[in-house]
Amino acid sequence: MSPPDMTAIPANPPRRALPLHRELDRVWRNGPGLWGQVTSVSHTTLGLRFMATAFVFFGIGGLLSMLIRAQLATPNSAFLDTALYNQIFTMHGSIMMFLFAIPMLEGLAMYLLPKMLGTRDLAFPRLSALGYWCYLLGGSILITALLAGVAPADGWFMYTPLSGKTYSPGINADVWLLGVTFVEISALAAAIELMVSILRLRAPGMTLTQMPLFAWYILGTAAMMLAGFPPLILGSVLLEMERAFGWPFFDPERGGDPLLWQHLFWLFGHPEVYIIFLPAAGVLSTVIPVLCRTKIVGYGAIVAAILGMVFLSFGLWVHHMFTVGIPHLALAFFSAASMLVAVPTAVQIFAWIGTMWRGRPELKLPMLYILGFFFTFVMGGLTGVMLAVVPFNWQAHDTAFVTAHLHYVLIGGFVFPMLAGVAWWMPLMSGRRRIKGLGEAAFWLILIGFHGTFFLMHLTGLMGMPRRIPTYADNPEWMGLNLSSSFFGFVMTIGFALFAIDLILQAGFGKRSVRDPWQAPSLDWAMALPPPNYNFASLPGVELQQAGAAGAMLKLARGEGFLPGAPRGRREILVTSVGAARPQHVALLPFNTALPLVLALAICAFVLLMLAGFYAVAPVALIPVVGLIWAWARRAVAAVDAAPVEIAPGQFLPVHPEGGATLTQSGLTGLLFANGTFLASLLFGLAFISLVSPGPPRPVWHADGTVLLAAAAVVALLAAGALGARWALARVEAARPAGAVLIGAVIVNLLALAGLAALAFWLPAPTRHAGDAVRAALVAYVGLHIAIATLFSAFALDQARRGELTPASPGALRNWGLWQRYTLAAAALAMAALWAQEAGA
Amino acid sequence: MRRVGGMVWLAWLIAGPTAWAAAFSVAYGLHGLGCELGWPALSLGPVSLQRVAIALPSLAAILLCLVLLARVSTALGPEAGIPRLGLWIGLVATLYTMAPVLVATSC
């Protein structure tokens, strides 16, 4: 069955919209009551819930900032003691970054993307739900710790050795390391499914170069999250291992290096700024042209600018470490990259200004926030260029100037555009109009309050005030500026409170909005307000995509697009090719389920046991995690031999791809990309400890032949496993039994695991030296992957036993093969690195 | 995307910045390695081994970008526009960020 030519597909005949809606609603809607909300996997429900929860955390973070400003209003305030003050500023930064900004962008993207791309949901709805529950539970752990007085207190970037066991003996630092890592499951889950959805679920005929710019921004963001979060997760895992088991990755006395933490943290931390900025810029590129009644200027240049930012932002991380004693040449590399990244940012700024120049801007509420963005973000960008210059950086480092700069960038570059976006899409989300006047008042309070607070902090910083100090009794000259900052901080808070009240009033009491109230052309407005869970009664082809929201709305509702209704009682969406978006097959999405919540609770049990210090028991909690993931995968095997589906008159598509990749394969590829970044970061750590760390050298340890033999055996066994995966797939595709091959593969993987365990037994104790600790971490990484490969092969064997492996649908075989090959490559690299480390010693 | 597959087009799109990222990472890694192994003290003609080692990946990236720029129109036809911009990004970024290797003290 060849992919259909989009121009040759006849339209479905029009039908009555209401029966079509009822048919779809029966299949796609949430269950009734609270349980229906808990089990929902709808991107609309979860996107809204992500955003609402993020706003709650934003409120908590905002309250903490008020406590900080109250403390700093006078030089010697006794309002907060130092220990509590440390917890409060640490939690303020951590909440705003990990519990507000990232989930907010995830929520907005989850909510909007399927609507903009002309599809019914994201690629992995259960993953959306799992991400949400991990976010909520992880965030709750952090907030509970704050209420209990054991919150992290080492600053939001948790520098070692301060965050090590010696200087932070309680569980405060563990709360951050485990809680934030738990939350980041949601970030990785969101990144994978947003990327796969953009590449594989676009409406038929929507080529990459024709998709909305918002999708380009989210594609860039998702790629950055996949590359940026693994170093942070690795750093957190290593620091937790040091704190829990004494593996001295960051302990200088045993060959570790605190700078390794800084590298790993900022490898995430600086791209993070752009991870936050890109979706906000996506909002701007969406809203500005419509409010100016014109088209965006420079679509291609903006896509190229996104590309530039995605890559260049990974070459800046060391500019957070300019004062730690780095050679001149390295300083120069990172200084140059830090300045260069201003260019793609400027390209976008000029494209937006050009769009406004060409059109006729309407000064509606979202436009006010956009103007606030321009005013604020450009100033933040310019102070960023100042900080990219090394000599200035040395002077301003760790002063209030940096605090001012980062708030100009983050509030200017993220909060203002997001407020514009919320004001823009509230009629879509709530189906109601806002009450005029309140939003404008909130805007002016926020704008005046913000600049009053943070512009002055540039000056206090330049006068020498360090960040994060609770008192400044010896510098009364800072008081006037600080008092003013505190006053305006409260003005800004009143503005945010007013904004929240405006939203609540609009959602609860606003008049019903007309459809497409902004006369926007994009597909997100070509639906009922608020949208049903399925978004579109039929999916738009090229003609309806180009008709604009007003032109497409009725035709889509009457089923004139592709795949109308839900006549088979299944949640069906179209999977299209990456480039030209040619329809490839119909994917069946899962129904509502509590499985994501239960899985998140099981992971939470593991996290809590680790937090409580029950290290021996904690691995037991992973057994239900494995069992639930197994059950998750079993439920995905729904329609083994479903008949082809008629998406348009005479046009049939299979339910399984014929030759191409499934959505799950695409998702796994994304996961392996992130996984590869994790491994690369670990290898970077090994090289850093071996070459750069000034600590004592690793004690000599002579590897004998047995160790080398074990390492070679592990790699050889994994190679056999990879061959077994390929062989099993070939047999299934030829309709021949593969049970014996699969049994062999399980045995081979178990032998590899045993070989690795023997290798680990022979290696020196990881507590001896940082070099030994990194080596042990590498072995543990490989061991985890072999264990998963074993489970994968056992799962495929179970499928074979049940008769679920068919030539058209070879079950888990392709995914297992992909994992097995990655494990082989990772093991070979790890063993080579161990050998190189030994040879170097 | 009608002329080549979507993944091929995406590969062309990211080729330039990827070349920069690879050169940047390798150069930074070689810089640390060279400082540890004393490469600045070893001369290769008028320059140190350290500078040569760090400059080589940049030169390779620049050459790669130039070659791809020469071929992008043939390969992608009317869809070459944005990937061409990507290659220019790779080229300019490599030239700008790696220029300090010519002047700055190394270790």
TrEMBL record, chain A:
User: PROSITE patterns under this entry?
Assistant: COX1, COX1_CUB
Q: What is its main location?
A: membrane
Task: Quote the EC number.
Answer: 7.1.1.9
Copy the pathway line from the protein's UniProt record. Answer: Energy metabolism; oxidative phosphorylation
So which residues are the signal peptide here? none
Q: What class of enzyme is it?
A: translocase
Instruction: Extract one GO cellular component term from the record.
Output: plasma membrane
Q: Which GO terms describe its biological process?
A: electron transport coupled proton transport; oxidative phosphorylation; respiratory electron transport chain
Membrane topology for this entry?
A: Multi-pass membrane protein
Bilayer-spanning residue ranges: 46-68, 88-113, 133-155, 175-201, 213-239, 273-292, 299-318, 330-355, 367-394, 406-429, 441-463, 483-505, 586-608, 614-633, 671-693, 705-729, 741-764, 776-797
Q: Show the InterPro entries listed in the entry.
A: Cyt_c_oxase-like_su1_dom, Cyt_c_oxase-like_su1_sf, Cyt_C_Oxase_1, Cyt_c_Oxase_su1_BS, Cyt_c_oxidase_su1_bac
Catalysed reactions, semicolon-separated: 4 Fe(II)-[cytochrome c] + O2 + 8 H(+)(in) = 4 Fe(III)-[cytochrome c] + 2 H2O + 4 H(+)(out)
In its UniProt entry, what is this protein called?
Answer: cytochrome-c oxidase
Automatic annotation (TrEMBL), chain B:
Q: Where are the transmembrane segments?
A: 52-73, 85-104
Query: What's the domain of life for this entry?
Result: Bacteria
**Keywords carried by this UniProt record:** Membrane, Transmembrane, Transmembrane helix
The molecule here is called Uncharacterized protein
